[in-house]
Amino acid sequence: MKSEEAETPSSAEQLREALIVQLRELGAVRTEAVEAAVRAVPRHVFVPQVSLSEAYAPERAVITKKDEDGVDVSSVSAARIQALMLEQAEIRPGMRVLEIGSGGYNAALIAELVGGKGEVTSIDIDPDAVDRARRFLAEAGYGRVNVLLADGEEGEPVHAPFDRIIVTVGAWDIPPAWVDQLAEGGRIVVPLRVRCLTRSVALEREGGHLVSRNYELCGFVPMQGVGERRMQLVVLHDEPGDEVGLKLDDGDRVDAEGLRTALAQPPVEVWSGVTIGGMEPFDGLDLWLATAVPDFARLAATPSARDRGIVAAASPMGISTLIDKDSFAYRKLRPTSPERTTFEFGAFGHGPDAQAVADQLVEHIRNWDREHRSGRAVFMVHPAGTSDDQLPAGRVVDKRHTRVTISWP
Ligand SMILES: C[S@@+](CC[C@H](N)C(=O)[O-])C[C@H]1O[C@@H](n2cnc3c(N)ncnc32)[C@H](O)[C@@H]1O
User: Fold this and answer.
1) Alpha-carbon distance 58 to 409, whole Å?
2) Which end of the chain is least crowded, N or C, by CB within 10 Å?
3) Nearest 5°: phi and psi at 100?
């Protein structure tokens, strides 16, 4: 007897065509080359644990492993983000490409893009991921992809140099090996975390540093191994179910006790007059705030903490927050009409300087609206040890191997 799915009219080929239409609509597939790759590779072969329709759902990442804390550490990424990153990479036939983080499917897409004259190497730190990727790649007819067990921190010296290095795991820094193994005119596409925010950044060499060509909002499982670097969480309220904390990055320090006391004080609300449509993305505002605010964090809170009035907004990912010693202010949205089609940005301030920090945050929001709303930031990556006078104007974030800057031309 046929399975339920085999009886439905949606064959894998039809679902793949439907996926392409959706990826085009989402702006993730932009070129004929990436479209042809998505059409060619049977994604369902790489995710046999989910149904055919889930395999071809554009936003569906398929988790393949969690760590002991329940954090996702391995997955086959969502088709939308894979297509976006491949467009960022601008892979052409004949290129040599390194993928860091192996799920199999993305390496097969890359194999389609580089064609028979190119070479694809994919490395993963997890032997299970390597086994899985090798098995499914062979099954789908992409046995020519080299899949190797290695920590991405060292790149893959044997098959270097690479025209493209595509990192498919959340990175906090750019290790020197990636730059050393990049061919002349090469490009690195990497989900880079800076000040708690992750953007998939396409970087190219320019003189002795890297400069971004474009970037996209994304989320990824965290890097393991030598390059592992998790965000810190400063707990502000720890009643079970009502947890509130501040996520900090890049070694930033705060007055935890002072900020805990601040949260217990009633907030001051300030509204900016800056509005946004309900469907309009505002990740650009967060990136601007991460650039402009000297002490920046992300306030994470459970829905229950919000419902009980401990904070005014809830997000497990965090909400952009300005900190000034023992006071802080976080961004908040309120609807401007009963239909909830537009929203206004504001700030909720807590602590002895609640009014001042809320005013400052609102001023940054207004500044973004006036000067940067339609603009794009530029990321640059200079080697650690580069002196300040060699860096562009903007926010400088010191990493282990590099100094990352975010500027707004
Ligand atoms: C999102 S998955 C990769 C998805 C894959 N590219 C695909 O086809 O969808 C991220 C992978 O990165 C791997 N990883 C984590 N840290 C790593 C490291 N330091 N070096 C290499 N791989 C790493 C994880 O084991 C995991 O399998």
Assistant:
1) 33
2) N
3) -105, 115
**Using a 6 Å cutoff on CB, does residue 123 contact ligand 1?**
yes
**How far is residue 279's CA from residue 315's CA, in Å, rounded to a whole number?**
18
Structure tokens, 213: 């060509």
**Backbone angles phi and psi of 32, in degrees to 5:** -60, -35
Tell me which residues are annotated as active site. Answer: 77
Tokens, residue 245: 């904390």
CB distance 292 to 367 below 8 Å: yes
Structure token digits, residue 279? 């469907």
Q: Give me the percent of the chain exceeding a pLDDT of 90.
A: 95
Q: How far is CA 362 from CA 35, 325, 330, 332, in A?
A: 42, 18, 10, 10
Fold classification of 4-227 (topology level):
Rossmann fold (3.40.50)
CA distance 287 to 239: 31
Q: Whose CA is nearest to atom 3 of ligand 1?
A: 101
Q: Which helix (H) or strand (E) holds 355?
A: helix 354-367
| Residue carrying structure tokens 């992409």 | 142
At residue 39, the 3 state secondary structure works out as helix
pLDDT single digits (tens) 74-127: 999 999 999 999 999 999 999 999 999 999 999 999 999 999 999 999 999 999
Specify the ligand 1 atom closest to the Cα of 151. 20
CA diameter of the chain: 72
Report the distance separating Cα 354 and Cα 332, nearest Å.
Answer: 15
- Delimit the domains of the chain by residue range: 4-227, 232-372, 378-407
8 pLDDT band, cuts 50/70/90, is low
Q: How far is the CA of 211 from the centre of ligand 1 (A)?
A: 24
Around Cβ 185, how many Cβ atoms within 10 Å? 8
| Nearest protein Cα to ligand 1, atom 9 | 76
CB 58 within 8 A of CB 80: yes
Tell me if 124 CB under 6 Å of ligand 1.
Answer: yes
Read off the tokens for 204. 């190219």
Of the candidates 275, 281, 285, the residue with the CA atom closest to the CA atom of residue 337: 275
Q: What is the 3-state secondary structure (H, E, C) of 190-223?
A: EEEEECCEEEEEEEEEECCEEEEEEEEECCCCEC
pLDDT in tens, 233-287: 999 999 999 999 999 999 999 999 999 999 999 999 999 999 999 999 999 999 9
